[in-house]
Specification:
The chain folds into two domains: about 130 residues, Orthogonal Bundle (Arc Repressor Mutant, subunit A), CATH 1.10.10.1820; about 60 residues, no CATH class. The protein is built from nine helices and six strands; from the N terminus they run H-H-H-H-E-E-H-H-H-E-E-H-E-E-H. It has a two-stranded antiparallel sheet. A two-stranded antiparallel sheet has the order 3-4. Strands 5-6 form a two-stranded antiparallel sheet. The longest helix has 17 residues.
Length: about 220
């Protein structure tokens, strides 16, 4: 594998969400540790670097040119998540510097650096385990936070389902818990879905009896 593919593999192993398992995120972390295509992971370095310089590095060593207006995307959709995952620290030279300061810079954390240096060696799995044990996986943190805001509902047949938060789903909950019990208490629920999960619940037997086929694409 090339360095970009290896970096994506590392980000997945570290527990970054799917949105950060991509080429742009991989190139960002490679720039952070000054790792060129032919440089072994064991030679990863710690250095403070601005987003503008990350773009220049990626263009020079990996031939990928990003527009200057990409900086905000990298900050919000990559570096912010790297910070949350314990991979990167912002302004290590001055933690009180405002985010929008032109001097804002980022650096790999010591724990992440030592872990990355082990990639491709027999010590990788042990180092990875220790990092995850210490920092946790960001994807699991997100899932835990998401579950905190789920809206539980019991359907007439006793099935329990969880709606993701949102005004549309709050309306669905009221239909199932207030409208149904008040105006059609003997009605059966055939299908329920929300934006996050299209097939949240389906009574397949009843659906077939009524000749109403329902798939996740409907």
């Amino acid at each position: 594998m090339g360095k970009v593919s290896e970096a994506i593999d590392i980000l997945e192993a570290l527990g970054l969400p799917k949105a950060q398992q991509n080429e742009r995120s991989a190139l960002t972390i490679l720039a952070l540790i000054d790792l060129k295509e032919d440089t072994p992971w064991s030679e990863s370095k710690k250095r403070a670097i601005k987003i503008h310089d990350i773009l220049l590095y990626v263009h020079k060593y990996y031939g990928k040119k990003y527009a200057e207006n990409t900086r905000e995307t990298i900050r919000r959709q990559i570096l912010h998540q790297f910070e949350q995952a314990g991979i990167v620290t912002r302004n290590p030279d001055n933690p009180f510097r405002p985010t929008n300061s032109p001097k804002t810079c980022y650096a790999i954390t010591d724990d992440a650096l030592e872990t990355l240096k082990k990639y491709g060696t027999t010590d990788w799995q042990v180092a990875l385990h220790e990092f995850v044990k210490k920092k946790g996986k960001l994807i699991e943190k997100y899932e835990k936070r998401k579950k905190k805001y789920l809206i539980p509902v019991n359907l007439p047949d006793g099935t329990s389902i969880d709606f993701s938060p949102g005004r549309h789903n709050e309306l669905q909950v009221k239909i199932l818990t207030e409208f149904q019990t008040r105006f059609c208490p003997n009605a059966k629920v055939i299908y329920v879905g929300d934006a996050a999960r299209k097939l949240l619940y389906i009574d397949e037997k009843l659906s077939k009896e009524l000749k109403i086929p329902i798939t996740k694409h409907d």
